[in-house]
Design brief:
By secondary structure, the protein is mostly beta strands. The chain has strands at about 5-15, 25-30, 35-40, 45, 50-55, 60-65, 70-80, 85-90, 95-100, 100-115, 115-125. Helices cover about 0% and strands about 70% of the residues. Strands 1, 2, 4, 5, 7 and 10 form a six-stranded antiparallel β-sheet that branches. Strands 3-6-11-8-9 form a five-stranded antiparallel β-sheet, with no helix packed on it. It starts with 5 loop residues before the first strand and ends with a strand.
């Protein structure tokens, strides 16, 4: 399915599982943390999030700094004007997820971080 003028306000929800089973949950706003890295005319990052995503070839990368290695659970939440299918990638793993019209929160999975530092989460239309 192609992206049809998708208004997508997205926050990446990052839950890091640390020692002693303590959970830390962070919402990562796309504004200031994400960039349209391919086909920049097909999407825009604004203070309101990802908007005017009209080209399925546009790649949106969100950069998150992780302070320690360990298990990280990612989900994507936001609001969309239309239903769509996107591909999400983190590390070596990618998967397709269906985005419903309206508000949503969709789990992306749990991943093992081996290193401290920035990691990129990629979104692309399919």
């Amino acid at each position: 399915m192609t992206i049809k003028k998708l208004l997508l306000t997205v926050f990446l929800n990052v839950a890091a599982l640390y020692l002693f089973s303590q959970n830390a949950v962070y919402d990562v706003n796309l504004s200031g943390n994400a960039y349209v890295t391919s086909y920049p005319d097909g999407a825009a990052i604004t203070q309101n999030g990802l908007q005017k995503w009209v080209n399925e070839k546009s790649v949106i990368e969100t950069f998150v700094y992780f302070y320690k290695p360990g298990a990280v659970t990612l989900s994507i939440k936001g609001k969309s004007d239309n239903e769509s299918v996107i591909e999400v990638g983190f590390g070596e793993k990618t998967s397709k997820i269906s985005i419903p019209a309206g508000n949503f929160k969709i789990p992306m999975g749990t991943f093992q971080l081996q290193n401290v530092g920035y990691a990129s989460i990629k979104l692309q239309g399919k």
